[in-house]
From TrEMBL:
UniProt protein name: Serine/threonine-protein kinase PknB
All copies of domain Protein kinase, residue ranges: 21-284
Keyword Nucleotide-binding found: yes
Pfam family, one: Pkinase
Assigned EC number: 2.7.11.1
InterPro entries: Kinase-like_dom_sf (IPR011009), Prot_kinase_dom (IPR000719)
GO molecular function terms attached to this record: ATP binding; protein serine/threonine kinase activity
CDD domains registered for this protein in UniProt: STKc_PknB_like
Amino acid sequence: MTEPAPFADALAPGRVVADRFELKSPWRQGGLSVAFEAHDRERDEPCEVQSFSAGLFEGEDQARAFAATFEPWMALRSERVARVRAVVVEGPNAFVVTDLATGRSLRQFLDEAAGEPLAPARVVEIGLALARGLEDLHAAGLVHGDVKPTSVYVDGPNVMLVDGGTTPSLWTAKDLGERTALIGTPYYAPIEQFGGEAPGPASDIYNVCTLLFELATGVQPFAGRSFLEVFQSKLAPEPPTFAQRAPKLASRGAFEEVVRRGLYADANRRYRTARELRAALETVAGGARV
């Protein structure tokens, strides 16, 4: 892990983190962090620096505990997961430096589609890439923890997962009483996370199947205007069909069943591994009607 540098309050373009990563401009922002496009002076190439608010941690020790959980990510090499280059602690601030994703996020694709579904074959391609990315992560003992439209970037045939490990790392670093806000994104999280379980491989698979449902139909599988309503809709014993959420959409046959299997309230009825999900998607891609 990169040694901590002197703490500075201002986060603005031009600041250099760890005497190496020069911040250019903020380009992604979430509830817990802001990501800057940056320049890696040592390698003379672009990168991303994700900054986590100092208010997120009680002090430098907690920031260090958070940063330490990212060390295994620095050894991961996957074409489908943004590589972690360094983790920096400056006072109570933590920075995670990764490769800069190219293309557009699935959030942008969904916004532009304005409720219209993506082409089924394209959804299968994206699903296969995500399943393979999860296989790489889980084989290394890692968990993404919060797969959603803003954490998937698509550039032509290339699909990349970003922001991996953030939710599990915060879960580890923060006190139990503070974890209720760290279940991931409620629309994409399985019901067991609502009950306090930490993110794991099973939740990653659930995240991906929720996302595939949304890409294939233009709407999320579980409706609700509040945290509680979303949770209640996820308790149904059978996941919704495509037509139940998008009445004008014809059945997608085998592909629809592949997606729905990953969305059961009962975890025992879902895919056990990312490899199982990939195999099911490969069967669909290999000739079944989508």
